[in-house]
Every structure is written in C-alpha cells, then in structure tokens.
Amino acid sequence: SQTIHQWPATLVQPVGSPLSLECTVEGTSNPNLYWYRQAAGRGLQLLFYSVGIGQISSEVPQNLSASRPQDRQFILSSKKLLLSDSGFYLCAWSVADTIYFGEGSWLTVV
Amino acid sequence: SQQGEEDPQALSIQEGENATMNCSYKTSINNLQWYRQNSGRGLVHLILIRSNEREKHSGRLRVTLDTSKKSSSLLITASRAADTASYFCAPTHSGNTPLVFGKGTRLSVIA
Q: Which of B81, B76, B74 is nearest to B109 (CA)?
C-alpha cells in the first residue's frame, strides 16, 4: 500500500532563518506531488505541484521554493522565512484524481 | 479559480441528527470529491462522484451532484461526535489540473 511521510511535524523558526520540509511517498511510481499551506482559520492554498522529477509549477509567488530531486521526494524550502510563512503545511500525492495527504507540518515563525 | 465553495461555513448539530453541506463550482467538471480534515491533521478522501452520476452512497455518507446547477451536497446521516471536522469539496477538471480547495464547512457534532 502507498504511504506518505512528511517531516518535521512541528518546528519553530526565527524570522530570516532557512526552511526545509521534506516529503516522501512509498508504494507508487511517478506520482503527482503537491505542497499546500493552511493558515489559521483559512482554507488550503496550493503552493507547488510537480508532475515529474525536476518539474515544478508554482501557484503563488512568494519566498518559498520547491524541488523534486527524486521521483517520490518533494522538498519545500525557503532561504529566509517571514512571519507570514507561519501555517500548516501539507504534502500530498496523487496518481489518478484522488489526492492523499500527509499528516502535515506546523511551522511557527517567530 | 477552479475551487469549490462550501456552504455553510460552520454547522453545529446534535449527535444523531443529519448534517448537510453544499458545494458550488463554476466550470465544467470530470468529477467532484469530498474530503474531511480533523483538527490539526491532513485531509482524508471521503468519496468521489463522477460527472455522469447523480447520487452516490458510502456508509452514512450520501453525495449528490447536479451538473446543471454546478452544485453538490454531502449528507452525513445519524451524525456522531467523531464526525466533527472540516469538510471540503474539490471539483476535478479535465487535464492534469491540481485540486484546489476552498475554506470548507466546519461541522461540530455535539454529544
């Protein structure tokens, strides 16, 4: 069966520090991969999606970036965090229409 | 935007009652999906209804789809406290377009 792992689960970072969130999927090949963000009291915002290695589409211009170095690995990064980057980050994958989500990473920028 | 919009934003009911949530969308779809999110967790897929289907059941869930009105509804029958969560609809369009989500409906089931 397919599983998705996302880490770290929680982190507190100072403004201006770098960020790296990692996500891996097991049990499937060539999945579409996604990063979403959910700010407090708001809906899910699609940040990035990828249909293959090295192929990244950005939905919202911001100081975040994403990379897909391997077929089932998706990384969300920032060189310098802003207070507004705080939120709940969700990695997800799909092969057909249904999306499967990880457990999320809580990021607090202080 | 190709996201669905859920209504109401919040719903509070007593355990045992039925809960109905609605979803509207703007462009033609291939299918529509409903997801649930428990507080502080990832979203979980509940059910998918195809554009040529009008109604679908899964356990205590009943989903309807009216493509002429570009709307869908999710009915949870005999609700339980464990159904307390946010519910999102996600219209799926042709091509490899990623799913986008609205703000969801926050359902509170009071024991």
A: B81
DSSP tag of B20: E
Test A44 with B98 for CB contact under 8 angstroms: no
Going residue by residue through chain B, which has 111 residues, state the pLDDT in tens, using 9 for 90 and above. Answer: 578 999 999 999 999 999 999 999 999 899 999 999 999 999 999 999 999 999 999 999 999 999 999 999 999 999 999 999 999 999 998 766 788 898 999 999 999
Mutate to test the interface with A, among B39, B43, B44 (most CBs of A within 10 A): B43
Pairing mode of beta strands B10-14, B105-110: parallel
On chain A, the residues whose CB falls within 8 A of the CB of B103 are 42-43
Residues of B with CB under 8 A from a CB of A: 3, 30-31, 33, 35, 40-45, 48, 88, 90, 92, 96, 98-104
